[in-house]
Amino acid sequence: MNRVIVYTDPPLLASATAARLVTAITDLQATQPSVAIALTGGRTGTAVLEHLRVNTAATAIDWSAVDIFWGDERFLPGKHPDRNETQARAALLDHIKIPKGRIHAVAPSDGPYGDDADLAAAAYAKELDGVTLDILLAGVGEEGHTLSVFPDSPAVHETEATVVAVRDCPKPPPVRISLTLPAARQASQVWLMTTGTSKAEAVTTALSGASEVDLPAAGAQGRELTLWLLDKAAAGR
Ligand SMILES: O=C1O[C@H](COP(=O)(O)O)[C@@H](O)[C@H](O)[C@H]1O
User: Fold this and answer.
1) Is 154 left (phi over 0), alpha (psi -120 to 50) or beta?
2) In angstroms, what is the span from residue 140 Cα to ligand 1's centroid?
3) Does residue 236 fall inside a structural domain?
4) pLDDT mean by block of 10 residues, the chain; 237 residues
5) Residue with CA nearest ligand 1 atom 1
6) What's the ipTM?
7) Residue 150 in contact with residue 181, Cβ under 8 Å?
8) Distance CA 83, CA 190 (A)
9) Which among 70, 76, 145 is the best mutation to test ligand 1's pocket, defined by most ligand atoms within 8 Å of the CB?
10) Is 188:133 a contact under the CB 8 Å cutoff?
11) Atom of ligand 1 nearest to the CA of 43
12) Residue 183 near residue 128, CB atoms below 8 Å
């Protein structure tokens, strides 16, 4: 099922999405022992986490039973400010009571696999093996990328692997680790969040039946639900 929800502006989108996450996570926790969420980087994804941090209802979440993954990561040294993990830690993860073992970050480029992005991708695929993501949060780029799957790139043609190393990305940094679209489609719910007029064309093209090769965001669909969370500007077309 596809749903599109439009908010007046980016701050409202971020706070409403944080509230939606609180409800979704606590509802899931009422019926299953643990919940798996994949985070996204970028402005909107980080703003949602900041709102989650200050949302008083979020104290109802039992973080000790939430596994945190990332849909994609910028392959940079650990603690680099541009890593999606670093930003998520600053926005939320360093402020909540979540056991270390529940945070499943992608290895950095100075980590156990050094700067071998293929090894880091393979290790992350292993980490995700057997996990069903309850909610995959993802952004949308101006050219229609989602996760770190860019239009007409090798990653968008990947049909076997769940996680790939992505090189020569048009958006910096050039090397990234990303879930593939087939892996994204294993998630129960995919929430695609984006704001701003610069995203409007990508959004309308994706929702008008574009091919995922041309517009990867069109191919990120959850098994139960695909939710497009937009501000008025991104929905403007
Ligand atoms: O580089 C990335 O950007 C996208 C979208 O970011 P935004 O700032 O335009 O919201 C994000 O979804 C992705 O995780 C990240 O690596």
Assistant:
1) alpha
2) 7
3) no
4) 96 98 98 98 96 97 98 98 98 98 98 98 98 98 97 96 96 96 98 97 96 98 98 94
5) 42
6) 0.94
7) no
8) 22
9) 145
10) yes
11) 8
12) yes
Q: Is residue 39 part of a domain?
A: yes
Q: Nearest 5 degrees, angle CA 86-CA 91-CA 96?
A: 100
Task: Residue 190: give the domain boundaries.
Answer: 2-229
13-45 residues labelled b (16+ CB within 10 A) or e (exposed): bbbbbbbbbbebbeebbeeeeebbbbbbbbebb
Q: What six digits make up the tokens of 216?
A: 């990867």
Q: Within a domain: residue 199?
A: yes
**What is the domain-level CATH number for residue 13?**
3.40.50.1360
Asked whether the whole model's pTM tops 0.90, one would answer yes
Q: Which of 13, 73, 140 to mutate to test the pocket of ligand 1 (most atoms within 8 A of CB)?
A: 140
Q: For residue 179, give the 3-state DSSP assignment.
A: strand
**N- to C-terminal Cα distance for the chain?**
21
Q: Is 87 exposed, middle or buried (0-12, 13-18, 19+ CB in 10 A)?
A: buried
Residue 26: inside a domain: yes
